[in-house]
From TrEMBL:
Residues 60-328 form the Aminotransferase class V domain. The keyword Isomerase applies. One of its GO terms (molecular function) is isopenicillin-N epimerase activity. This is Isopenicillin N epimerase.
Length: 391
């Protein structure tokens, strides 16, 4: 890893860590800020945690920082642990009726798809899966595949901003526009987007948008947010019902009150978010947009190394990538999920390379690379050489 950037993280320097996308990696300065918050909490847990004391003011500051980052009013933002929690809150609160339809995609995140199916089954709603090919040729192909699943019974579209398994940036602006034209609400799972892409929620105009702060914004683990349009906030309830359900709502809405307090928890991950944003913004002369562009160019360079050495065609246009890239593995048709697990372990334990290996729902064997500022092209070249030897 580049020494000048590695010093900011506690990552093992003997490991080529090419999997920032799974859980993120938190810089040391942010972890120190989190420890300071924990120390402050333990000096007086009552004063720190009680909503009527100082907690709400602290959380409002974080929401105000997010407001500037994602262009959405702070009052419409709830702080949560992760995007999966946000998806659960929306779909388990959604007013489904029997035979209503919810559309998901074949690139959707498994945990979120499980939550959607659970909620739909309770009401007798139907889950329809838009089969999006991979390799994929264009954003228009994504739009066509999803729109073909719409019917007069479709009530909700749940779609990723950046897909986890295939690393694709979906054209969410256009998907929201098409869905709204047909009277369909849209929940965008933006787990990977903040910090990887510029996120403008006013422009996207989704009814619900949820994301993680601990991935590309590099906040501590268990930090995320949920944005809900005002007209739907009375419907959306957190997965855990607590004191906020009947709290005094003169100073804030029930939406704000319920999500601000779901029981005793450690708020230090979300309170450390402003420090994380300040830090990653400082890593590039052009701020966060410069960092995002650098990471995008790095993942393209790394992908090119791998495509050439493995003799694999590009599975997606470069404009559909952010800081992730999924690449098909040139292996026999008999390659199974157990083989994927075995290969991933071999890369880690024998070659000290951390990278996910898996089979897509279509059956295509793949691996995925991430690009964060602590990575460099030589690491992808080394991965390519190792794969050429053992695959």
């Amino acid at each position: 890893m580049p020494e000048s950037n590695l010093q900011h993280w506690g990552l093992n320097p003997r490991i080529d860590f090419l999997n920032h996308g799974s859980f993120g990696a938190c810089p040391t300065v942010v972890l120190n800020a989190q420890r300071d918050w924990i120390d402050l909490l333990e000096k007086d847990p009552i004063d720190f945690l009680a909503p009527e004391r100082t907690l709400l003011t602290k959380l409002l500051h974080v929401r105000s920082v997010l407001q500037a980052l994602i262009n959405a009013p702070a009052k419409d933002i709830a702080l949560i642990r992760n995007a999966t929690e946000g998806v659960n809150a929306v779909v388990r609160s959604f007013p489904f009726e029997k035979n209503d339809e919810v559309v998901i995609t074949s690139h959707g995140y498994n945990a979120c798809n499980n939550a959607i199916r659970f909620a739909a089954e309770r009401f007798g709603a139907v889950v329809k899966v838009a089969e999006i090919p991979f390799p994929v040729e264009s954003p228009e192909q994504v739009v066509a595949s999803i729109e073909s699943m719409f019917s007069e019974r479709t009530r909700l579209l749940v779609v990723d901003h950046v897909t986890s398994s295939t690393g694709l940036v979906f054209p969410v602006d256009e998907l929201v526009r098409r869905a709204h034209r047909d009277g369909i609400r849209v929940l965008v799972d933006g787990a990977h987007a903040p910090g990887m892409l510029s996120v403008d929620l006013q422009q996207i105009n989704a009814d619900y948008y949820t994301a993680n702060n601990h991935k590309w914004l590099c906040a501590p683990k268990a930090s995320g947010f949920l944005h809900v349009k005002p007209e739907f906030q009375e419907e959306v309830r957190p997965a855990i019902i607590s004191h906020g359900a009947n709290a005094d709502t003169e100073s804030q809405s029930r939406f704000e009150s319920e999500f601000a307090w779901t029981g005793t928890y450690d708020p230090s991950p979300v309170l450390s978010l402003p420090t994380a944003i300040d830090f990653i913004t400082s890593l590039h002369p052009r701020g966060l947009s410069g960092l995002q562009q650098t990471n995008h160019e790095l993942v393209l360079a790394g992908r090119e190394q791998l495509l050439q050495k493995l003799n694999v065609s590009s599975p997606a246009p470069s404009e559909m990538l952010g800081s992730l890239a999924t690449i098909p593995l040139p292996v026999a048709a008999s390659f199974c999920p157990a083989d994927a697990v075995s290969l991933q372990r071999k890369l880690f334990y024998q070659h000290q390379i951390e990278v996910p290996v898996f089979k897509l729902s279509s059956g295509l064997p793949c691996f995925r690379i991430s690009a964060q500022i602590y990575n460099q092209v030589d690491q992808y070249e080394r991965l390519a050489n190792v794969l050429c030897e053992i695959v």
